Amino acid sequence: MFLFVRQNPRWGAANTALVRWLPAEYEDGESEPKGWNPERLHNGFQLPPARTVSREIMTSASKWKDDSYSQLLVDWGQYISHDITLTPQSTSTDGSDVDCLKTCENVHPCFPIKSMVLMFLSPGCMPFFRSTSDCFVNFQSGIRQALQRQQLNAMTSFIDASAVYGHNQKLESFLRDLPGRNGKLAVNARFKDPKGRPYLPFVTKLPSACHQDLQGERVECFSAGDNRVSEGLPLTSLHTLWLREHNRIAEALKHINGHWSPEMIYQETRKIIGALHQIITLRDYAPKIIGPESFKHYIGPYRGYDPSVDPSIANVFAAAAFRFGHATISPILCRLNESFQEDERFPHLRLHNTLFSPWRIVKEGGIEPVLRGVIGSAASAVSADMLLADEVTERLVVLDTLKQMDLAALNLQRGRDHGLPGKILAESQICHSNAIRLSSSYQSDSNHSTPCLKKQTKKTHIICPSLCQQTVFLSDH
Questions:
Q1: Does 239 carry a binding-site annotation?
Q2: Pseudo-torsion of CA 252, 254, 242, 399, nearest 10°?
Q3: pLDDT by residue (tens digit) across 116-126?
Q4: Could you give phi then psi for residue 162, rounded to 5 degrees?
Q5: Closest to 426 (Cα-Cα) out of 320, 313, 322
Q6: Quick check: helix, strand or coil at residue 133?
Q7: Angle between the 233-256 and 368-376 helix axes, to the nearest 10 degrees?
Q8: Which pairs count as long-range contacts for 116-123, CB under 8 Å and 24+ apart, including other chains?
Q9: Taking each helix axis from N to C terminus, what angle separates 233-256 and 262-279, rounded to the nearest 10 degrees?
């Protein structure tokens, strides 16, 4: 069930370009991101490194809770974002002699994040791979075409449970229990939870890169319709729930409709799971994010299929706007027992100790302690003074490098990589307002207040004048 628009079959399809609401803003007008030439001035100022902006403006040592919402709201946002967006990154070398994991030079496809504060960084930068571009620019041959660099969305743009079933037939076939006769999804052949319930299957490429319990048997990365399934324990738990729900519904349909073929059972179950994804997202999630009145005004009740609407995901949404959820990430993962109290056997964990660690699911009580934790704990609140927890700006773990990373810096760098227009330019074009003119009094102009202005630090005045060049990720928070 790979959805498409009949008259425009590439609208919203997997592996098509993210759409633009505004033209891309590259330093050379075509493909080089802002900051590619560090000496270039923007509005008379050098663009600060993304890491500097993160440390001076974005990082918060503490977070307070918003009791209006549970942590599940945050984790569902991450899960559903993976259902509709995945921007592939260039490989480490991309056909050149440069290894992006080892260089601090801006050489395609490498766009490393410079850092004046070394801390855990060596040799003074964080590796960064540019997003894969659509096929009209060949950097190796030096060809420059008039078209601007565009980025791809590897997922379908529809809320269709592709995070469960995959976005291509090869992956879908791997995830199915074939040649089984029940229309079910494949389950883990080695492990079950304490009550005998199944886990997701492991990836086939072994050994996988996921972190391990050094005292026991290996537990590989899990496999699902989206390859980010093992990023965090709540995400893994949601993927596991949908695997089990598919198989539960498939079994019920087989019991009711004994004459159905395995393919019929599978496809009908998939339709139900896809519909549940849409219901949860549009009924329970989106109104809480944009507010019930905005939801009623801009979305409202379903009025039928409209073939004139392009459902493709916007570049600014994938690379910036929907990343607002990063500011709501809690630095602590709570795990609760059946009484919704802290589980003495499986205590709470610092976030960085949970990333890419599926062994904690298999060996530490299954998904139930995690799910109770995200349901029973409040989400983190967001304010100008408390943006991203230092767990994600100082201790973020990714699999392709041994270095700890900075999520805020990565987001800012990704916005530059994608050529997202700066906040003020975007506002002037979309809202038809006059562009804000920078002046020596800019820092004291309360009408143009930004998070960095509110901090009033001595270093801030160096950073703020060029913030109009920052992408909406920063200003949206």
A1: no
A2: 150
A3: 654 554 558 89
A4: -65, -20
A5: 320
A6: strand
A7: 110
A8: 116/49, 116/51, 116/52, 117/51, 117/55, 119/394, 120/394, 120/403, 120/404, 121/403, 122/403
A9: 130
Q: Which residue in this structure is represented by tokens 């630090």? A: 457
* Residue-wise pLDDT tens digits, 435-446: 444 444 334 444
**pLDDT tens across 76-99, in order?**
999 999 999 999 998 765 566 788
Cβ neighbours for 447, distance < 8 A, ≥ 6 positions apart: none
Q: Are strands 113-114 and 65-70 parallel, antiparallel or unpaired?
A: unpaired
Does 146 have pLDDT greater than 70?
Answer: no
Among residues 2, 19, 7, 15, the alpha carbon closest in space to that of 311 is found at: 19
If one counts the domains in the chain, the total is 1
List the domain range (segments joined by +) for residue 190: 1-477
What pLDDT score was predicted for residue 477? Answer: 34
Local structure of residue 30 (DSSP, 8 states):
S
Q: Could you write out the DSSP letters of every residue in 94-113?
A: TTSS--TTT--S-BTTB--E
Helix (H, G, I), strand (E, B) or coil at 19: strand
Per-chain mean pLDDT for the chain = 85
The amino acid at 179: P
Residue labelled with tokens 């990836």: 203
Contact 109, 129 (CB under 8 A): yes
The closest alpha carbon to 375, from 333, 331, 325, belongs to: 333
Roughly what angle, to the nearest 10 degrees, separates helices 71-84 and 368-376? 110
Residue whose entry in the numeric block shows the structure tokens 């005045």 = 461
What pLDDT score was predicted for residue 439? Answer: 40
The CA–CA distances, whole Å, from 362 to 7, 366, 423 equal 46, 6, 44
Here the CATH number for the domain that contains residue 150 is 1.10.640.10
Residue given tokens 């920078």 in the structure block: 438
Q: In this predicted structure, what is the pLDDT of residue 56? A: 87
Quote the CA–CA distance of 147 and 193 in Å, as a whole number. 52
Catalytic positions, written as ranges: 82
Q: Can you tell me the distance from the alpha carbon of 95 to that of 445, in angstroms, rounded to the nearest whole number? A: 49
Report the half-sphere exposure of 43 (CA within 13 A, side-chain side): 21
Please give the Cα distance from 420 to 414 (Å, whole number): 9
DSSP letter for each residue of 144-205: --SSPP-BEE-S-SS-S-HHHH-SSHHHHHHHB-TT-SS-PBP--SS-B-TTS-B-PPBPSS
**Which DSSP helix (H) or strand (E) runs through 380?**
strand 378-380
Q: Which two tokens stand for residue 63?
A: 């977070």
Average pLDDT over residues 391-396: 88
Which amino acid, 138?
A: N
With H, G, I as helix, E, B as strand and everything else as coil, classify residue 336: strand
Nearest in space to 398 (alpha carbons), one of 154, 65, 113, 57: 113
